[in-house]
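Beta-ketoacyl-[acyl-carrier-protein] synthase III, pasting as requested.
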Amino acid sequence: MGLGSYLPPRKVSNADVAARLDTTDEWIRTRIGIAARHIADPATATSDLAVEAALRAMKSAEVEHVDVVILATATPDHHVPGTAPLVAHRLGLRQVPAFDLGAGCSGFVYATTVAAGLIHAGTASTVMVIGAEKMSAVIDPADRSTAPIFGDGAGAVVLAAGRADEPGALGPAAWGSDGEHADAIYIPGGGSRNPSRATADLKNRYVHMKGNEVFRHAVRRITHVTEESAAAAGWAIQDIDRLIVHQANARISVAVANTLGIPPERVPSNITHVGNTSAASIPLLLSHSAINGQLKPRQRVVVTSFGAGFTWAATTLLWPIGLQVLA
Ligand code: COA
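Structure tokens follow.
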């Protein structure tokens, strides 16, 4: 296994956000748990962030080749073509199968589930899974209900065939979706429902979010999918050493941990520094938690997420031994 991540250098503080929006540092800190987020420069695209994270993951895994590249993103460079082939090309993996996967903030865990399936089926023996987002490209800087929340970044893992019981092997996944809530987090324009020529209004190109509705469903779904995934691995909730929760809102993670009865010190967080980075959130949190010593070899880890769709997904693993994480 290899793990790497990348944040664009520019940091935008709450004070910067509050200077142009009707909000305050205090509101953002207390209601969301964010102090700053990293925002890519205009010339940087999602593929640029993805390549940086993927290079670090390959170095971490000590490999120069992978059999498949899956890129989880809601912010591809273009509608057509997919961004993954471009990323694979820039990694020097020109001929490998490479495709994008769109499942909102659950995209990374969905993609690891697909990757594990490819490995189990014998279709591939190494798979690169990347979560990368330039959320700033789809967030309305004038919308105070989304602009303080989202940030840019990327994280990647290299998964490799091995024994099912060895540290680093992914356990059974629990995942699902409910399209009844498709409009709770969505970009109204630019797709086939509302093509670009009908969406001259720039606001239709931005994320629209019903924050309250998302919050309630996120707590419920993350709680349930965590329970399902732990049960499928044969673990009781008390057995979970670390719960890696998608960084959407610090209050969501706290509510999930409280509902499950998991002590806060077992629920690492980096939202304060990075905001909600959608599909990049989980690999960024894994990477930062490993580097700061919150993830240790053989710990029982549940990785759990929720996002637009709605979608949700969780999986388990024993934290690998000797993993050199690069960020
Ligand atoms: N600054 C100051 N006040 C704000 C604000 C901001 N940035 N955004 C909203 N408010 C105000 C509202 O206008 C409202 O004021 P009112 O009571 O006078 O009408 C009040 O704060 C409460 O609004 P509400 O929308 O109920 O806030 P909230 O506590 O639900 O927080 C979110 C809003 C968006 C932070 C929260 O709902 C959330 O995090 N939802 C989940 C979002 C998410 O995770 N999305 C990604 C999923 S993957």
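Note for the archive: The mean pLDDT is 97.
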